[in-house]
Amino acid sequence: MARRSKSRQVAVQMLYQVDLNPDTEVTEIKKMIAERISDQQLIDFAWSLYAGVMEHRQELDLKIQSVAANWRLNRMAATDRAVLRLGAYEIVKTETPRGVAIDEAIELAKKFGDAQSSQFVNGILDKIHSD
Question: Does Disulfide bond count among this protein's keywords (predicted)?
Protein backbone atom coordinates (compact mmCIF):
# COMPACT_ATOMS: atom_id res chain seq x y z
CA MET A 1 0.00 0.00 0.00
CA ALA A 2 1.33 3.42 -0.92
CA ARG A 3 2.40 5.52 2.03
CA ARG A 4 -0.21 8.25 1.68
CA SER A 5 -2.89 5.67 0.91
CA LYS A 6 -2.41 4.28 4.41
CA SER A 7 -2.97 7.76 5.85
CA ARG A 8 -6.16 8.11 3.82
CA GLN A 9 -7.33 4.71 5.02
CA VAL A 10 -6.78 5.68 8.65
CA ALA A 11 -8.48 9.06 8.11
CA VAL A 12 -11.55 7.26 6.72
CA GLN A 13 -11.55 4.94 9.73
CA MET A 14 -11.51 7.94 12.06
CA LEU A 15 -14.26 9.71 10.11
CA TYR A 16 -16.34 6.55 10.33
CA GLN A 17 -15.64 6.33 14.08
CA VAL A 18 -16.81 9.90 14.68
CA ASP A 19 -19.83 9.48 12.41
CA LEU A 20 -21.04 6.57 14.52
CA ASN A 21 -19.77 7.94 17.86
CA PRO A 22 -19.96 11.75 17.69
CA ASP A 23 -18.75 12.11 21.28
CA THR A 24 -15.32 10.65 20.47
CA GLU A 25 -12.69 13.01 21.88
CA VAL A 26 -10.05 14.60 19.63
CA THR A 27 -7.31 13.18 21.85
CA GLU A 28 -8.73 9.70 21.28
CA ILE A 29 -8.72 10.23 17.51
CA LYS A 30 -5.09 11.39 17.61
CA LYS A 31 -4.17 8.37 19.72
CA MET A 32 -5.91 5.95 17.34
CA ILE A 33 -4.14 7.50 14.34
CA ALA A 34 -0.76 7.15 16.05
CA GLU A 35 -1.51 3.51 16.92
CA ARG A 36 -2.16 2.69 13.26
CA ILE A 37 0.71 4.60 11.60
CA SER A 38 4.35 4.68 12.68
CA ASP A 39 5.78 7.42 10.40
CA GLN A 40 5.27 10.94 11.82
CA GLN A 41 4.78 12.53 8.38
CA LEU A 42 2.02 10.05 7.61
CA ILE A 43 0.45 10.59 11.03
CA ASP A 44 0.44 14.33 10.30
CA PHE A 45 -1.08 13.74 6.85
CA ALA A 46 -3.83 11.49 8.24
CA TRP A 47 -4.58 14.07 10.93
CA SER A 48 -4.68 16.92 8.41
CA LEU A 49 -7.17 14.98 6.28
CA TYR A 50 -9.34 14.12 9.26
CA ALA A 51 -9.22 17.64 10.71
CA GLY A 52 -9.85 19.22 7.31
CA VAL A 53 -12.93 17.10 6.70
CA MET A 54 -14.26 17.86 10.18
CA GLU A 55 -13.64 21.60 9.75
CA HIS A 56 -15.49 21.69 6.42
CA ARG A 57 -17.93 18.85 7.06
CA GLN A 58 -21.12 20.87 6.68
CA GLU A 59 -19.95 22.39 3.39
CA LEU A 60 -18.77 18.99 2.11
CA ASP A 61 -22.07 17.36 3.08
CA LEU A 62 -24.01 20.02 1.18
CA LYS A 63 -21.77 19.50 -1.86
CA ILE A 64 -22.23 15.73 -1.74
CA GLN A 65 -25.97 16.06 -1.21
CA SER A 66 -26.31 18.47 -4.13
CA VAL A 67 -24.94 15.92 -6.62
CA ALA A 68 -26.26 12.70 -5.06
CA ALA A 69 -29.48 12.35 -7.03
CA ASN A 70 -32.17 10.54 -5.05
CA TRP A 71 -29.83 9.90 -2.11
CA ARG A 72 -29.96 11.64 1.24
CA LEU A 73 -26.68 11.66 3.10
CA ASN A 74 -28.18 10.02 6.18
CA ARG A 75 -29.43 7.12 4.02
CA MET A 76 -25.97 6.33 2.64
CA ALA A 77 -23.83 3.66 4.25
CA ALA A 78 -21.60 5.17 6.94
CA THR A 79 -18.51 3.81 5.19
CA ASP A 80 -19.55 5.45 1.91
CA ARG A 81 -20.19 8.75 3.73
CA ALA A 82 -16.72 8.69 5.25
CA VAL A 83 -15.06 7.95 1.89
CA LEU A 84 -17.16 10.58 0.11
CA ARG A 85 -16.33 13.24 2.69
CA LEU A 86 -12.62 12.52 2.39
CA GLY A 87 -12.72 12.44 -1.42
CA ALA A 88 -14.78 15.62 -1.62
CA TYR A 89 -12.41 17.34 0.80
CA GLU A 90 -9.37 16.43 -1.27
CA ILE A 91 -11.08 17.57 -4.49
CA VAL A 92 -12.46 20.85 -3.16
CA LYS A 93 -10.00 21.95 -0.48
CA THR A 94 -6.55 20.53 -1.24
CA GLU A 95 -3.92 20.56 -3.96
CA THR A 96 -4.24 16.80 -4.47
CA PRO A 97 -4.66 16.12 -8.21
CA ARG A 98 -8.34 15.43 -8.79
CA GLY A 99 -7.69 12.11 -10.51
CA VAL A 100 -5.59 10.94 -7.57
CA ALA A 101 -8.27 11.98 -5.07
CA ILE A 102 -10.96 10.09 -6.99
CA ASP A 103 -8.80 6.98 -7.55
CA GLU A 104 -7.83 6.85 -3.88
CA ALA A 105 -11.48 7.21 -2.83
CA ILE A 106 -12.52 4.41 -5.20
CA GLU A 107 -9.90 2.11 -3.66
CA LEU A 108 -11.11 3.01 -0.16
CA ALA A 109 -14.71 2.32 -1.20
CA LYS A 110 -13.66 -1.10 -2.50
CA LYS A 111 -11.89 -1.83 0.78
CA PHE A 112 -14.57 -0.62 3.19
CA GLY A 113 -17.83 -0.63 1.23
CA ASP A 114 -20.05 -3.15 -0.47
CA ALA A 115 -20.01 -4.34 -4.09
CA GLN A 116 -21.59 -1.13 -5.41
CA SER A 117 -19.72 1.36 -3.23
CA SER A 118 -16.84 2.04 -5.60
CA GLN A 119 -19.17 2.90 -8.50
CA PHE A 120 -21.35 5.02 -6.22
CA VAL A 121 -18.35 6.95 -4.85
CA ASN A 122 -16.87 7.36 -8.33
CA GLY A 123 -20.12 8.79 -9.71
CA ILE A 124 -20.59 11.30 -6.92
CA LEU A 125 -16.97 12.47 -6.78
CA ASP A 126 -16.86 12.78 -10.56
CA LYS A 127 -19.87 15.11 -10.37
CA ILE A 128 -18.22 17.13 -7.61
CA HIS A 129 -15.05 17.35 -9.69
CA SER A 130 -17.08 18.56 -12.70
CA ASP A 131 -18.84 21.31 -10.71
Answer: no
